[in-house]
């Protein structure tokens, strides 16, 4: 993030000076924004950058303990430079948070420069995961940097200390945000597909109960309880992949518009990226742990690959925007969109359905038989109606409070649910759009149809309360969806292994004994066990010191 | 489990011989049941114990790779003996799984005895957790033990090799199972209370957004989104504690009955213990991770205490009965109970409400205003009606299949949901029963009332689909419950810290910088960071070897 920060917020001159050095590894840079006491609220950062007109320098300082920079990756032990976000003070005023390039360590001996305190923040979740890198802390004691190390593309401080805003539109920075979040969504699909691949393959190997006449027991993947937990996750891995691909298009589209000074789609795109980042990462984190449980006891072994996958993945729910904060941003967008409908402003893109809100508030689901739930149009309308009705209900609740802000705080849990409904609709609709394209490979489309329906109907079953209590579907129709879901599981079952093989993960990449391609799980588990360092000796270290005295009743006098 | 196994299944003679040795640590024993290929299905174990009448011995053998004993704690490196579960073969017949005392290692040098292969199964989830003990693997190559090392309280093999069953009722072994599961439920409350204590205290320290006129930001515990995630978990910690206490009584009661050869309550007690084990441990595992997320980024630090708590806790969902298998056992009990209603057999204990099934199928919830949801009778009837209706719907579905077994497999996911509904009812009802007792301490009862209502109404909100689609409540009543829940959160808020302080966890026991009693979180985080081994040197190890050559552009020729 050191380089993108300079690319996005640096002047041409700054880019020409700093980027080649960073690219050639003559310096190692990191992005130092988060502080010990400040994460989601970037405007609350405390580090100060005070302009000193006498020397033409900024004085970077950490005025409080909570202003210590905290978490940046590689900051603690490796980086020589950082883009530091600090409150710009000049001319007797606070101009809010800006970026500054600050050198942290000497290029000859790597010692921290005067006024710089830098170190590692300590151990983190898991045995490997982010423990294989340092996350740093950083404090400044009146560290001076030249004025030209403030990133000055969007605003400048003159030699005299005057603050000047450039005419570069601020909205341009949102482009990078969409780009980063699109990558996170794609990575969610990737992480989820790994977990699902492991759990699916192992579920076909593992047998338990159901032996008839002394024959082999039943493969656990054949149990409906296993299918009802596993197959929605398999469908989600595909769903997130397709919505990730679509987000790539979205990023390109919005970038083009931004370059042409067209900011019309930006609020919708921003809400979309924030919401999808949130629900795909939350769902993926939960799904990895569910896949571990689906592997029974052996999922708890490190060699299952799932503990490490989980420990590495879960920070996604917090970084680049805490998932609940993201959903509240989506909710704000939805409330604004609805409030503007009365003035005839038609919503665009993924919010376009809200333009049909009158219809969606009164439409009736036409499902009469379980198979009716296979129709895309029916699924789509149910999801649109549910999302629209939940948003409208929130908007009505808000109007009963004396100020919108008070209402927004009070019903924020409901707003989060409305935002989730909206984002799930986006994913369902992008899956359906994908199916309207040409899909190469014989029979592939049928399988994807099944997964799309599994994805949508399992969400409908999970959030049945929303669908039924908003009147979008009747209890009877909910039961029919559940019945159809069971039948879909039976259709997915014969292709489940092929559908995870299609992710094309190598055994090396999966890093899981349980998920190995050839299914020779038990042999590999047994071989892996013998690699445990505890097995280096047959009689364990410490036997003479601890175990033997115990067994021989040679207790020492207690020394406590 | 070595000692309880001998106590439960050993003869008087065996108890007198082996228990003193185990108690005095002259031998170290473990309980070796689970195999590489067999966990939940104990009857599928493959290890064999074949009686040889010529030598009056059993031959213990591992005929396949999957028959290797796998997971027993302390088996790999420490234990000298094990109670090994193996298929008893004598007289040309297989009599199923029985327990045998087998010596594994010599008492003089701790070497594995001839025919014994024993070792550790390798690393597990987390950095500490269960990695601080060995979990073992064990294989037998025709290992001979004397006949009198078969645990013979319930059945015997005579000198001639004849299999004889004693008249000791088999049901007695269920007593121990209830005992163990009661402990697991109590421990769920304990683990959950630790996580909730950490997250609640830190939520009062952490501030983010909402600063007015330059004042401090808002404590995150004041956000409704935080409350709606945190307070139901706080309420659950109390709920699980009370249901755990009640289970202690249940264990004593059933033990007395078993001793008097009264087996009438056993099926109900067994279903109850299985179900409560399942839903309290699943809820607690999820809750610990949710508490971690509620602590934002800092929850990911090891010093938050939450990663370790999670890694240590999650095996509870799998061991002593996989949680889904447990719920299917509850569902079987519910289906049996309902099928017997027609013959006038009235259910007892926690299933007694099913005796009022006719009323529960047609009753209407009387809630008209949000405050009506505070009435215990209304909450209880809603939970009873929902559980009864879900069970009856499953029973009706089952009757449409050609065999009950086929139906049970096909709708097992629905059966699991019905079992969850039944178990949640038990917890809600025991919380309400607790409140009908005398509660010492001024104002304590009011706080517990609030938590009880939070627990029940948050479940109702989470499972709204079940309540509404079974017609137990109307959508309007669901919305009123949600409204009441918001108001309850406001009432819990001022006492939230006191309610977690009441768990009386010391800072040492909590092991969490974020959850420290004095709230001096940031200072402690900062001090803790400097203890990281990476901070032992200012310039990191490896600088000269890796970082300096990079920065100085002294690239070596690639050796790949």
TrEMBL record, chains A, B:
Residues 30-131 form the Acyl-CoA oxidase/dehydrogenase middle domain. InterPro entries: ACOX_C_alpha1 (IPR055060), Acyl-CoA_ox_N (IPR029320), Acyl-CoA_Oxase/DH_mid-dom (IPR006091), Acyl-CoA_Oxase/DH_mid-dom_sf (IPR046373), Acyl-CoA_oxidase (IPR012258), Acyl-CoA_oxidase_C (IPR002655), AcylCo_DH-like_C (IPR036250), AcylCoA_DH/ox_N_sf (IPR037069). PANTHER family: ELECTRON TRANSPORT OXIDOREDUCTASE (PTHR10909), PEROXISOMAL ACYL-COENZYME A OXIDASE 1 (PTHR10909:SF250). Its cofactor is FAD. Belongs to the acyl-CoA oxidase family. The keyword Oxidoreductase applies. SUPFAM superfamilies: Acyl-CoA dehydrogenase C-terminal domain-like (SSF47203), Acyl-CoA dehydrogenase NM domain-like (SSF56645). Residues 1-28 form the Acyl-coenzyme A oxidase N-terminal domain. Residues 174-335 form the Acyl-CoA oxidase C-alpha1 domain. The gene is LOC107890640. It holds the Pfam family Acyl-CoA_ox_N. Residues 377-552 form the Acyl-CoA oxidase C-terminal domain. It comes from the Eukaryota. It is found in: Peroxisome. The keyword Oxidoreductase applies. This is Acyl-coenzyme A oxidase. Keywords: FAD, Fatty acid metabolism, Flavoprotein, Lipid metabolism, Oxidoreductase, Peroxisome.
């Amino acid at each position: 993030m050191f380089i993108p920060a300079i690319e996005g917020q640096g002047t041409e001159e700054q880019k020409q000076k700093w980027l080649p050095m960073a690219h050639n590894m003559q310096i190692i840079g990191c992005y130092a924004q988060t502080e010990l006491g400040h994460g989601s609220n970037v405007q609350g950062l405390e580090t100060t950058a005070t302009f000193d007109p006498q020397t033409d320098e900024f004085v970077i300082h950490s005025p409080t303990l909570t202003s210590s920079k905290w978490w940046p990756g590689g900051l603690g032990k490796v980086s020589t430079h950082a883009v530091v976000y600090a409150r710009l003070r000049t001319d007797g005023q606070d101009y809010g948070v800006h970026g500054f390039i600050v050198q942290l360590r000497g290029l000859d001996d790597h010692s921290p420069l005067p006024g710089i305190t830098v170190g590692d923040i300590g151990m983190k979740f898991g045995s490997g995961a982010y423990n294989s890198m340092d996350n740093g802390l950083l404090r400044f004691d009146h560290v001076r940097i030249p004025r030209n190390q403030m990133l000055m593309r969007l605003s400048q401080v003159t030699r005299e200390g005057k603050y000047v805003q450039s005419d570069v539109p601020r909205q341009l920075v949102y482009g990078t945000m969409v780009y980063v979040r699109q990558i996170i969504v794609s990575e969610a699909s990737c992480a989820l597909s790994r977990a699902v691949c492991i759990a699916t393959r192992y579920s076909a190997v593992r047998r338990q109960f159901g032996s008839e006449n002394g024959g082999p027991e039943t493969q656990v993947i054949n149990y409906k309880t296993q299918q009802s937990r596993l197959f929605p996750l398999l469908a989600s891995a595909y769903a997130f992949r397709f919505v990730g691909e679509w987000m790539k298009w979205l990023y390109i589209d919005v970038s083009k518009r931004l370059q042409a000074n067209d900011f019309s789609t930006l609020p919708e795109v921003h809400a979309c990226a924030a919401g999808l980042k949130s629900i795909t990462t939350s769902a993926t984190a939960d799904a990895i742990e569910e896949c571990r449980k689906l592997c029974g006891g052996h999922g708890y072994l490190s060699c299952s690959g799932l503990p490490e996958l989980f420990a590495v993945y879960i920070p996604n729910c917090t970084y680049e925007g805490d998932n609940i904060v993201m959903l509240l941003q989506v909710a704000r967008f939805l409330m604004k969109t609805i409030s503007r409908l009365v003035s005839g402003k038609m919503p665009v893109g993924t919010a376009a359905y809200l333009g049909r809100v009158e219809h969606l508030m009164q439409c009736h689901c036409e499902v009469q038989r379980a198979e009716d739930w296979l129709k895309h149009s029916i699924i789509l309308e149910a999801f649109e109606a549910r999302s629209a009705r939940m948003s409208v209900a929130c908007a009505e609740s808000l109007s009963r409070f004396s100020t919108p802000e008070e209402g927004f705080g009070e019903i924020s849990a409901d707003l989060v649910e409305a935002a989730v409904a909206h984002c799930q609709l986006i994913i369902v609709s992008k899956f359906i759009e994908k199916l309207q394209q040409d899909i190469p490979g014989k029979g592939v489309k049928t399988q994807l149809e099944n997964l799309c329906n599994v994805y949508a109907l399992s969400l409908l079953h999970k959030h049945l309360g929303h669908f039924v209590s908003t009147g979008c579907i009747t209890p009877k129709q909910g039961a029919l969806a559940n019945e159809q879901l069971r039948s879909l599981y039976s259709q997915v079952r014969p292709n489940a292994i092929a559908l995870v093989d299609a992710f094309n993960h190598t055994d090396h990449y999966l890093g899981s004994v349980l998920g190995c391609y050839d299914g020779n799980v038990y042999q590999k588990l047994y071989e892996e066990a013998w690699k445990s360092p505890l097995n280096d000796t047959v009689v364990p270290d410490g036997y003479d010191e601890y175990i033997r005295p115990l067994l021989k009743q040679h207790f020492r006098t207690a020394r406590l």
